[in-house]
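Appendix C reproduces, verbatim, an entry submitted by the partner laboratory led by Prof. M.T., so that reviewers can inspect both the input and the predicted structure.
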Amino acid sequence: MMTTSRLLPLAASVLLAAIGWTNSTSPTPVVYAPTDDTAAAAPQSASAKLHAPFDAILKEHVRDGLVDYKALGKDTDDLDAYIASLGRVDPARLARDDKMVFWINAYNAFTLRLILDNPKIDSIKDISAGKRWKAERWAVNGKKYSLDQIEHEILRPMGDARVHFALVCAALSCPDLAPEAYVAERLDEQLDRQGRVFVTNNKKGLRTYIDDGWFGGPTVEISAIFDWFEEDFVSSSTDIVDFVLPYASEADAAFMRKHRKDLDVEHFDYDWSLNLRSGDRVRH
C-alpha cells in the first residue's frame, strides 16, 4: 500500500506536469503577500502560480466588478502571455478544483480578449454571432474551444451551479467580474463570496417588494440567469428560492421566508451593455 508521504509528492508532480513543469525545471516556490494584510504570507501552489498573471491584470483593471477596457487595451502583452500559457496546459490532468479554476479563469480571460478585439462596441452582442460565444478560437492543449463549449460542455457538467456567479460575459447584468483570479485553494470561499455579491445587488441580482398591482403581492425579482439555467440551481426537493436564500441579505431572506407560500418570482430585464467603468470606453 502506498503511504500518504509517497502520495503527496506524486499528486504534486501530476499537477506540475499538467501546467508544463517537470522535475528538470524544479521552480523555486513563490511567496506572495495576500490581499488581506492580516493574513500570513503563504507559498503559491503550482495552480496559483499559473493564474498569478491574470490575478495581477484583474487587480489593476477591475473595480466594483467593472473593467477599465481603455487602459487594458493599451497594453495587452500580459493578457496575451497569460492566454498563451493556458494553451500549454492539459486540463484533463488537473484535479477537479484546479480544473474548474482553470476553465473559469480561461473563460473570463478569453472574454476580455474578445472585447478588446472588437473596439467601439457597446455590447458583446454587437459582435456577430459566429465570432462571439460559438467561435472556436481559444486554443488549449492543441484544441480550439468556443466560450459556449467551455461553459456548457465543461463547466456546467461539473455540477456546481455557483459557477454562474464566476463566469462573466462582459455585460452589466452579469455577475460582477471578481478583482482577482480564482484559485483552487480558495475556490469554495470565492464562489460563495461572488454569490453573495451578486444576490445582494438589488439592481441585477435580487430584490424583494410588495407589488400593489391588481394581481400583485409579495414578490422576489431575480436575475434572468436563474431562469435560463434553472435546471442547474434546483432539484427535485428544492426550488430557486431555496437556492438564493443563503446568499440574500438578512432583510431579503426574512421577507422571502415570511411570504414563502405566496411569493411571486419575477426576473430582471437583462442589460447587455458592456461592463465598463464609467468613461472607460473600449476604443484604443
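Strands lie at 31-32, 42-43, 62-63, 66-67, 138-140, 143-145, 206-210, 218-222, 264-267. Additional entries are available on request from the coordinating office.
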